[in-house]
Write a structure and sequence with these properties.
The complex is a heterotrimer of chains A (644), B (176) and C (108).
Chain A: H1 3-23, H2 30-57, E1 64-75, E2 78-87, H3 88-111, H4 118-137, H5 141-159, H6 166-197, H7 202-208, H8 220-235, H9 244-247, H10 253-262, H11 267-274, H12 276-280, H13 283-304, H14 310-330, H15 334-361, H16 379-393, H17 399-413, H18 419-443, H19 461-476, H20 484-487, H21 497-502, H22 517-544, H23 548-556, H24 558-564, H25 569-618, H26 623-643
Antiparallel strand pairs in A: 1-2
Helix pairs in contact in A: 1-2, 1-4, 2-3, 2-4, 3-4, 3-10, 3-15, 3-19, 4-5, 5-6, 5-10, 6-8, 8-11, 8-13, 10-15, 11-15, 13-14, 13-18, 14-15, 14-17, 14-18, 15-16, 15-17, 15-19, 16-18, 16-19, 17-18, 18-22
Chain B: H1 3-24, H2 28-48, H3 52-77, H4 90-120, H5 134-141, H6 146-167
Chain C: H1 3-8, H2 12-32, H3 36-61, H4 65-95
Helix pairs in contact in C: 2-3, 3-4
The chains are: A mainly alpha (644), B mainly alpha (176), C mainly alpha (108).
């Protein structure tokens, strides 16, 4: 099969699934719709796998499969081709998206079984997959932007999937509007880059980037990358645009797993990795990215400490982990960012699906205060969730450990890094360990606190299979990127496969020195130790001595309230931006639109109408009057002739 | 004052009086009668201008046929009275009356102004056509104006058909 | 032109003025009367006035063309009267009304 055909199947299979389910969304049952949608996703995954195998067969320097379908836009200098590329970076992403996507489709068959709009749900899910593939595979910024907007739309549709609930519909709108802010910046970034380079193609841009770094703030590359980064903060939920992601949990849980944890929210990271030579040339932007990433990691984790909704905890965790990825990008560790993106997709999807399984078992109960002791009711879910927990808090040799450690090490060691970034990351890791252990403790361990009427039941096999697969991936997924210091002591000395794979695509930070292995061991040990202590403290608080957390919360007083209320960021946005904007709009509407523009047009129309009425009075149907006008004309003419 | 002069003044006054009566009288029957009177006066004026044939035609067509037509239609309508004879609007009525007066003044004025032109440019009494003009009229009508004449014939035919079509009862004589 | 001449010697001017006065009378009828039949009569009056001036010109200028015109005008006037009256008859049959103010269908 030619690569063009394969690429077309890869991209358009979900679209076909979307059309089949979308046009018959009232007729299909969960099984039929789910099979169609999952089939489409699996077909995509298989095609992606075939293409990646092709890719591996190529020599390292030429690993790139480009397919160009047609010339999309050609206006003078602007030439945009509907072209798609699989290279080392997009290969990882496309496998993650189609693979995890297929698993989540499968899970959804069980989870959405009783829902009325199930076919519509699967149609949206397929449409999302299609747009995500456009985003990943597009070989220029504009095609990526189409996918970027498309996933935003699908995210909106799926968050507000149960739109009869006003709160959920509002959450969807919030996500959409917040993303719009970022998307506007993304567009501006595209303009700046086009003005600078005269092209939107990734490969061409990366080739044209000058070797010297820009040191000023207003230089074109710095400006362009900053705008792109603002776009990324919208899509990837970073400060200041992260507020939509926790609310996005209003959607069905598999959607949270797919869109708001594993794939869509990582689009910003992916975009930055894609353009890494460009970002590398703008150290100022990199600094901003690292700072924002670090701050987000810490802040979101701290909010996660106080939340009671199982999905909210996971949502803040997602924001925090995305912060790690940006931190990695900011210090120039693009490979580490992509690595963490991948492992995070595994374990966070696993945890979301696990929480979906819990919520399913608890009859739509999401408050972890009303759970507890679920270990014996949901053994399989518990087991997989445990693996996810171990992965996210960074216990070796689970996936999260390798990627997180890589990021922390790079934050410290990289020439663009700083020990402050390392401290932020470590602090985030400590808090992550704490709130994740708290989540485990309140959900699965300890006494059961739910009413006797609820009898939790284990989920069906169709929901458990994806959990098992993701659990395995979360356990071993990190082994493709084992750092040198560890591999040296392992038998057979396995190389860092990921680093070798990405090497041609990722630019290294100039001036990287060889580091002392002892330092790396030391830092690794410190972060793991801190996380372990934190996890044990949490275990002690929430399992052994459940009264302690309340006392501590009470002793913290105001500070606890501030964190519990998410630092009042939403309220701040309402006070600072939304309400003034609404008031301004109302003022403009009233004074300019109603009182000026409308009235002006009314005056003009009244003038026309009035003159019409006046002239109409002359045409009164009285023929004698008409004869009189003739007479007037004759008299006037004669007078003129005689007077001349 | 010669007979000619007397005849002109006599006929002029008669005709004008007839015309004014036609317009001013309330009852349409009297209007029709005055109109016939005016027609006869004009016919007589034609005679005084030596247009004998036209005078005859005038008598037959106007004073005869047209007036009879008017009277017959009036008879069919059977109008006992006319409630409002003239236009009601005071302002527009005044404007119209003023207009009429102005028009009259203008025409008379222009005629008086231009009378000298006519008397100088061969409008002298010597050019007056004397005797019977019927033969000359016939000659010119059937030579120079033959097309117009034929067209008029066709027009009359069309008018005859049109008038019948307009005024007939629905279904004609075969109406049930 | 002296007053005595004006009265004692008849010329083209006299006929034209008479014609003008007749025409104006007819015009007043058209503008002011309400009865459609009387309006038609007034139109006839105006046509006659024009005829008179034609004949007068023909007489005083020594040309026959004016009389031919009168001939044509008469024909057309007769045609106009017959059609006009036919229209009036059919209108009257339908609405029982011949006051022109009643027919305001040309209203804009």
């Amino acid at each position: 099969m030619s690569q063009q055909t394969l690429m077309a199947i890869l991209i358009f299979a979900p679209l076909v699934g979307f059309f089949i389910n979308g046009f018959r969304y009232k007729k299909h049952s969960a099984e039929v719709a789910g099979t169609i949608a999952t089939g489409a996703a699996v077909i995509s995954f298989i095609s992606a796998l075939l293409m990646v195998i092709d890719l591996i067969g190529l020599p390292a320097e030429e690993r790139r499969i480009s397919v160009q379908f047609f010339d999309w836009i050609t206006i003078e200098k602007l030439k945009v081709v509907a072209g798609f590329t699989i290279d080392q970076i997009s290969a990882i992403m496309v496998l993650v998206v189609t693979g995890v996507g297929s698993l989540i489709h499968l899970f959804s068959i069980g989870y959405m079984h009783h829902d009325e709009g199930v076919a519509k749900y699967f149609a949206y899910l397929n449409l999302f997959l299609f747009n995500m593939l456009l985003l990943i595979l597009g070989d220029n910024l504009l095609v990526m932007f189409v996918g970027w907007e498309g996933v935003g739309l699908c995210s909106y549709l799926l968050i507000g999937f149960w739109f009869t609930d006003k709160q959920k519909a509002t959450a969807g709108m919030k996500a959409f509007i917040t993303n719009r802010v970022g998307d506007a910046a993304f567009l501006l970034g595209m303009f700046v880059l086009f003005l600078t380079f005269g092209t939107l193609n990734f490969q061409e841009i990366n080739h044209l980037v000058p070797l010297t770094s820009e040191l000023t703030w207003l230089a074109p590359i710095t400006m362009g990358t900053l705008f792109l980064f603002i776009g990324a903060t919208g899509k990837s939920a970073q400060i200041p645009l992260y507020v939509w992601l926790p609310d996005a949990m209003a959607g069905p849980t598999p959607v949270s797993a797919l869109i708001h944890a594993a794939t869509m929210v990582t689009a910003g990271v992916y975009m930055i990795v894609r353009l890494n030579p460009l970002f590398m040339a703008a150290p100022n932007t990199m600094m901003i990215i690292a700072t924002i990433g670090g701050l987000t990691a810490v802040m979101a984790a701290s909010i996660g400490l106080t939340q009671w909704d199982i999905k909210k905890v996971l949502a803040y965790s997602t924001v925090s982990q995305l912060g790690y990825m940006f931190l990695a990008c900011g210090v120039g560790a693009f490979g580490a960012a992509l690595f963490h993106l991948m492992t995070h997709a595994f374990f966070k999807a696993l945890m979301f699906l696990g929480s979906g399984s819990v919520i399913h078992a608890m009859h739509e109960e999401q408050d972890i205060r009303k759970m507890g002791g679920l270990k014996k009711y949901l053994p399989h879910t518990y087991l997989t969730f445990l693996i996810g927990w171990l992965a996210i808090i960074g216990v070796p040799p689970f996936a999260g450990f390798f990627s997180k450690d890589e990021i922390l090490w790079q934050a410290f060691h990289s020439p663009r890094g700083h020990w402050v970034f390392w401290a932020m990351g470590a602090l985030g890791a400590v808090m992550t360990a704490f709130y994740m252990t708290r989540l485990m403790a309140l959900t699965f361990w300890g006494e059961s606190r739910f009413s006797k009427k609820i009898h939790p039941h284990e989920s069906p096999m169709i929901m458990l299979i994806p959990l098992f697969v993701l659990a395995i991936l979360s356990a071993i997924g990190g082994w493709i990127g084992i750092p040198h210091v560890i591999s040296e002591i392992l038998p057979g000395q396995p190389g860092n496969f990921l680093e070798t794979w990405l090497e041609p695509m990722i630019k290294t930070v100039p001036g990287t020195e060889h580091a002392e292995p002892s330092l790396e061991w030391g830092l690794m040990g410190i972060s793991v130790m801190l996380a372990a202590i934190s996890a044990m403290t949490a275990y002690h608080f929430y399992v052994k001595d459940p009264s302690k957390p309340k006392k501590i919360a009470a002793s913290l007083g105001k500070l606890y309230d501030v964190v519990y209320n998410k630092y009042y960021v939403d309220e701040g946005y309402f006070c600072g931006i939304i309400n003034p904007l609404v008031r301004l709009s109302k003022g403009i509407w009233f004074y300019i639109d109603v009182n000026f523009i409308d009235k002006t047009t009314y005056v003009i129309s009244d003038l026309v109408r009035g003159s019409g009425l006046f002239v109409r009075g002359i045409q009164n149907g009285n023929i004698q009057q008409y004869a009189m006008y003739i007479g007037l004309g004759v008299v006037a003419t004669m007078t003129y002739v005689l007077m001349r | 004052m010669s007979a000619d002069v007397f005849l002109f003044w006599f006929l002029a006054i008669l005709t004008l009086a007839g015309g004014l009566t036609t317009v001013l009288v309330t009852n349409p029957i009297y209007s029709a009668l005055s109109l016939a009177f005016t027609m006869i006066g004009v016919s007589a004026l034609f005679v005084s201008l030596n247009a004998y044939f036209l005078a005859g035609v005038q008598l037959i067509v106007y004073a005869g046929a047209v007036t009879v037509l008017f009277v017959m239609v009036l008879m069919m309508f059977d109008l006992k009275h006319e409630l409002i004879t003239f236009t009601r609007g005071k302002i527009s009525g005044l404007v119209k009356a003023g207009l009429v007066a102005l028009f009259a003044g203008l025409i008379v004025g222009s005629v008086l102004i231009t009378s000298d032109v006519f008397s100088k440019s061969g409008g002298a009494p010597e050019a007056v056509i004397g005797g019977d003009t019927t033969k000359a009229l016939g000659t010119i009508l059937f030579s120079k104006y033959i097309f117009g004449f034929e067209a008029l014939g066709v027009l009359l035919l069309i008018v005859a058909i049109g008038a019948v079509a307009l005024a007939r009862s629905k279904g004609g004589t075969h109406a049930k | 032109m002296q007053n005595s001449e004006l009265i004692g010697e008849i010329g083209l001017t006299h006929y034209l003025i008479l014609s003008a006065l007749l025409f104006v009378a007819g015009m007043a009828g058209v503008l002011l009367r309400r009865n459609a039949i009387v309006i038609l009569m007034s139109v006839e009056l105006m046509l006659n006035a024009v005829n008179l001036s034609f004949v007068a010109f023909s007489h005083y200028l020594g040309q026959m063309d004016g009389q031919v015109m009168v001939f044509f005008v008469m024909t057309i006037a007769a045609a106009e009267v017959s059609v006009g009256l036919a229209i009036l008859v059919s209108i009257f049959k339908r609405y029982k009304e011949i006051n022109v103010r009643f027919f305001e269908h040309l209203k804009g």
